Amino acid sequence: MRLRRRRPQVDDFLDAVVRDRRPPRFPASDDEAREMLAASALRAGQPGADAPHPDFVEKLERRLRTAMQVDDADRAGARLSRRRLLGGAAAAAAVAVGAGVGIDRVIEHIDDSAAATPKELVPEAGRWVDVGALADVPVGRPLRFSTAAFEGFVVNHGEGDVQAVSAMCTHMPCTLIFNPGAQRLDCPCHTAWFGLDGAPISSAYPYRLPALPTLRTRVVSGRVEVFSA
Amino acid sequence: MEQSTSASPDLHVVGDAAGWESVYREQVGPVYRYVYARTGNRADAEDIAAQVFLRALPRLRLRASPGEIRSYLMTTARSVLAEHWTMHYAADAGLLEEDVATPEPPPERLDGDSGVRRAARVLAALPDHYRRILELRFLRGYSVKEAASEMGITVTNAKVMQHRALRRAAEEEPW
Lengths: 229, 175
Hints:
The structure holds 2 protein chains of 2 kinds. Chain A is built from 5 helices and 12 strands. By secondary structure, chain A is an alpha+beta fold. In chain A, the strands form 3 sheets. A 5-stranded mixed β-sheet of chain A has the order 1-10-5-4-3, with no helix packed on it. In chain A, strands 6-7-8-9 form a 4-stranded antiparallel β-sheet, with no helix packed on it. Chain A starts with 7 loop residues before the first helix and ends with a strand. The relative contact order of chain A is 0.13. Chain B has 2 domains: 2-110, Rna Polymerase Sigma Factor, Chain: A; 115-172, Arc Repressor Mutant, subunit A (Orthogonal Bundle). Chain B is elongated. The interface between A and B is large, with 75 and 83 residues.
């Protein structure tokens, strides 16, 4: 059996896993990634290795408490109208749609018409983050970016109108893919499409999905910046 | 939608105020286990598990059944893991996809299948020398050099054997 020459970083990855350290990042082939995943699964076989550390559990609970408080205040207004809309008929139709619907019982859909309008997300601990050159975002070709807290697309609508919309589907947490032919952001998981302005176009569900949130965006000396955590 | 859960025997009613906290405390262990077995290190596992809860919890209906809640959290975990592997290792996101759309993955995959049991099951299916090198490395924490000396082979051979063994292990079951 002959093996293709492996990148030395694969060995570094495996050594890091053995020592429970964060491994190096590098572009790997699918075969290499499969080996690295297998090593990760075996490392989880050390007794106790895959139990969360109590400090982590406690810290994350504090983070979540803050996040949930912000979210509650955010949604208080939308709650009543959503209840009305998700009454009997819509509920029955949702059950009939099929795959993916099991999950729809689990998550809340903010479903009033206000939610279908893109909503600006302003992180409390935000700062201006450079996400690329304006020259790299021609009209009709969004630029995918990631900040620490946000997955998004920069969209150039022309005439100086530049917008950053979330790349996260508002149905379930899948990341959207740009569809150049249709000039849409499509969800690869279930049928859900969004316009380049973040507004929901269509989905397999009998209710409108919320619009994709947007970030504050500005252009400084030809660079696009978004206000993100 | 809520009428269908209210008839369910496994209805999981939790008080509004403390609701998400009890969901979190019940699920943080299983979610972390799932994520750790697909990252193999504490730093990445903690970052990813945190993202899973930060993304999923604000959207949860707390009156869904524990099975439904678990299933949604695991779907979120698969998605965050797929992003992690795609972004940092350019890996094909499909590598991790069992099926994002599966509303209710089989319970044994979400639960009880501890890292210890899963590793043992995979190792049991391997030829002796492959099992030995993987045990020494990943279960007992030997360096390649230590494992080579334990097995009476050269370091180069130990590395090659480790890669072949991992490749075989990867074929044993989807990760």
